[in-house]
Structure formats: C-alpha cells, structure tokens
Amino acid sequence: MKSPHRYHITTFGCQMNKADSERMAGILENMGFEYSDDPNDANLVLYNTCTIRDNAEQKVYSYLGRQAKRKHQQPDLTLVVAGCVAQQEGETLLRRVPELDLVMGPQHANRLRDLLEQVFDGNQVVATEPIQIVEDITKPRRDSGITAWVNVIYGCNERCTYCVVPNVRGTEQSRTPEAIRAEMEELGRQGYQEITLLGQNIDAYGRDLPGVTESGRHQHTLTDLLYYVHDVPGIKRIRFATSHPRYFTERLIRACNELPKVCEHFHIPFQSGDNDTLKAMARGYTQQKYRRIIDKIREYMPDASISADAIVGFPGETEAQFENTLKLVEDIGFDQLNTAAYSPRPGTPAAQWDEQLTEEVKSDRLQRLNRLVAVKAAERSQRYLGRIEEVLVEDQNPKDTTQVMGRTSGNRLTFFTGEFQELKGQLVKVKITQTRAFSLTGEAM
Length: 445
Ligand code: SAH
Ligand code: SF4
Ligand code: F3S
Description:
Structural class: alpha/beta
Number of strands: 19
CATH topology of the largest domain: pyruvate-formate lyase- activating enzyme
Shape: globular
Bound molecules: S-adenosyl-L-homocysteine, iron/sulfur cluster, FE3-S4 cluster
CATH class of the largest domain: Alpha Beta
CATH architecture of the largest domain: Alpha-Beta Horseshoe
C-alpha cells in the first residue's frame, strides 16, 4: 500500500546541495516519509535550490509555479524551498509564492524535522538566520551505494567579487576530524568504496578549529585530515574538492602522492588567465602563481589529472584578457574544465560595475573556450591509450546495458563490457582501447 506520507526532492546546483539533500532525505525517511520519484505524486515537495547564475535561479521559479498551482487542488501539499535561493530571497520568496510552507537556508538543512514540526502546527516558516550547524544524528539517504560525499567544511570566507556563495552559505564552519572520521567509518562498514570530502574552499579546512602545532602551524589542515582518515577500513578511494589556488600547498601535493587511496586528481579553479581580471575578481593570486602550482603537481605526480572552473565575460574583460585565459588553457591542458559565462548576481560587487559585457560577447567567448577545452581534453585522454587503469564500477552504461561504467583514479569516465550485478562496487583493472575527450572505453583484464 502507498504510504500516506510521500516526499519528493529535486536538487539543483553543486555537490554541497546534493549532500544536503541526502541528509534531508534521511531526516524525512526517519519521520516516516517514503520517497516518490514523481513530485506530482508526493504530498511533501522540497526544492533544494541554486543561485550561482541567473539561469539556475530562474529554473527554480518555473518548477515552483507548477507545484504552487497544484496546491490549490491539494491543500495538504507541503511545499519547501531549501538551499541557496531560499537563503538569498528569504521572506521575499513568500511574497512571491505565498503557497510556500517553508523557506530554509543551507545552514538549516539538518534542522528539517524541527522546522517541519512548526509547519505541521500551522505556521509558515522562514529559517535563514545564521546558525552554528549542528551535527546530523539521522542517517543520510544516499543516492549511491558505492560513492559518498562527506562534508568537511561548510560556508566560505572568500569574497570573490562575482560570487553569491559566501552570502548564501555563510561563514566557514569546519567539522571536527573525529566527526568526519566517524562518518567515514560508518560508510566503510556499509560497503562504500569511495569518499569525496567536500568544501567550497576545502583548503580552508580547520582554520576555524582550535589548535596550533609547536611550529606555529595550524593543527587541523586538509593535509592533516587526509593522513588522519586515510586508513578508514573498507574505503578504497578518497577524493576532495574544491581547492583554492590561494591556499594550495606543496605539503598537500606530497600527501596526495604519498597516500595511495587519495586519487590522482586535483580540481583547482583558476577562473581567469589574466592578472588584471583575477585582481578584479579578488582571487588573491596571479596566473603565474597558478602555473607554479600546476608545475609543482606535475613534478611530484606527472600523471595526475587537473580540472578547473573558469568564467568568461567578467565585467570589463577585453578580448586580449580573454585570450590570456585561452593561453592558460592551451599551455596547461586541462583534463576537464567547467566553463561559465559571467552572470551578475544580487548582492555581489561585480554586478554593480559598469562595463558589463553583452550576452553575444559572452556566449561567443564561451563557445571559443569550450572548443579549445574539448581539443585539449581529447589530447589528455590519449595518454591512457593502451594503459591499464583501475576503474571503480558505479553503474550500468545507460546507453549500452552490456557495458558497465565507472571512473579512473584521475576521474575519467570509463566504459567496458561486463555484468553490472557482478562488478558493482569493484575496482577492476581495465585496458584502455579507445579514448574520447571526456571518456574512455576499455576491456577488463
Ligand atoms: N568554491 C569554488 C567554486 C564555487 S561556485 C571556487 O572557489 O572555485 C562554482 C563555479 O561557479 C565557480 O568556480 C565559478 O567558475 C562559477 N561561478 C560562480 N559565480 C559565478 C557567476 N556570477 N557567473 C558565472 N559563473 C560563476
Ligand atoms: Fe565563491 Fe570564491 Fe568562495 Fe569559491 S572561493 S565559493 S568562488 S567566494
Ligand atoms: Fe549553487 Fe549554492 Fe552550490 S548557489 S553552486 S548550490 S553553493
């Protein structure tokens, strides 16, 4: 029989939001709700929202409009907006969509039960005040049984002039190494193989925790954390994201090189290859410093894969400045690059500046950059041809069910012929027979 309490969550945005959604789903299941894939079949619908660019925000309103309408036919529908749009808009969202029951910022994700109890008492609730994030005592409902996210630091104290994240995610709050390790041990017991440690600026991990070593160095750094969690039983692979060039250290590279479970992949957004643009973005490094970081990584780990994020069309960016970004991409040769056209965001300094570029200029630059990225990624992929790579099998290939798919240590998506039920969660040695820009095909050895 269908449960009378069915919930649906749609998640927009980054891995932090996905991790928050899994925790909120865990709380709802603990409260007796059952998951429904179809929002129209659920009596609690939660949108976990993203506002990093304007198109991300607009998507939320169109989804929300449909559910608000449905609520007129079905008054017992509970409508929740969580995440970054909720934090940014707060009360304004209630005025725009009065059908909403609950508007809750990302820091309140673990409080979902409390907040819903207030809703079920008959209140319309807005929870956007800054709080100390409490550890979640229920278990997340994770999407995968093989790979899992573990938050290590919430929030961001940077002030990149284009970015809403510090406004919507609040100030940095690190979890203790003990709490992180305990979560990983539990995941190891449940059979998870791969963990991705998460933070918007993960290099900032620990700077808000007490403790300084004799040499004056902060005791809790990402590097220390990697050593501390490395031997968690059952866990075969550890990843982390996102790194900030301003704080990236050689000590971290040495740890990654030394610790066999840490994957050979660095995600270090550079945003622009032009020094004046970087300065206007308040990123705190030059393109030369960024290149030195990559050189250092390649000195210790010549084969490590490198990915990044970049923005084109930042206010005032000239053609020559944009070409500096192309040049950086040409020289470094990223394995993958997430690119975006600059989008002015409410409450950020750059949105107020003159010299905003037209959509035409931005989309032209975006296309040119994307073309180069694909060429370079295809070149990078070729180094795998004929090699034997370890692939962690995560799923069936949706386009060809005779194949399974997974990732190499360097995070390349890889397909090979095999039976999913048999290989699920296994690390398989695969000989690479075909390469494409962003994926590989091979044969199990
Ligand atoms: N904390 C990470 C990434 C945060 S957001 C970092 O510092 O790199 C993810 C990516 O979205 C950013 O790296 C950036 O490339 C992009 N982004 C952020 N704000 C943007 C904006 N206003 N317009 C376009 N892209 C943006
Ligand atoms: Fe945004 Fe900069 Fe913080 Fe990244 S480091 S989340 S880009 S403010
Ligand atoms: Fe989006 Fe919030 Fe992540 S704005 S990118 S969901 S931190």
